[in-house]
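step: validate -> pass
step: tokenize input -> pass
step: predict -> running
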Amino acid sequence: MTLKEAVKVCLGKKYADFSTRASRKECGFFFLFYFILCMVLFMINIMVGVMFEDSIEVYQLMVGLSVIMGLLLIVPTYAVCVRRLHDTGRKGWWVLLYFIPWIGTIALIIMLCLKSDEDNKYGPKPLC
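step: predict -> pass
step: emit ->
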């Protein structure tokens, strides 16, 4: 699976799919896409802030775009996390570890990086 395919799957047909499984590549590539998107938006915010430092309207527009991006990507982000947890044989509720500062986030990252189980109650092992 490539970066483009992972983004197509996560933002397309499995946008809000919390019941199947996701491979490590699918999850990893989606988070790479998310990270790159956040960095690009951050750099645009910095450049716009430098060019229009006295304009509050431009600042509000950029904050608004950041909020809209975050809201549009929150569902597929949690969906791919839940699907990845299913792939390791865990229930999707483990994603709530994210809300425990530091320790929970580190534990969740470790769980997302673990090796996939063979076929389990959430479906067959993903192909890639």
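step: describe -> The chain has a mean pLDDT of 91.
step: cleanup -> pass
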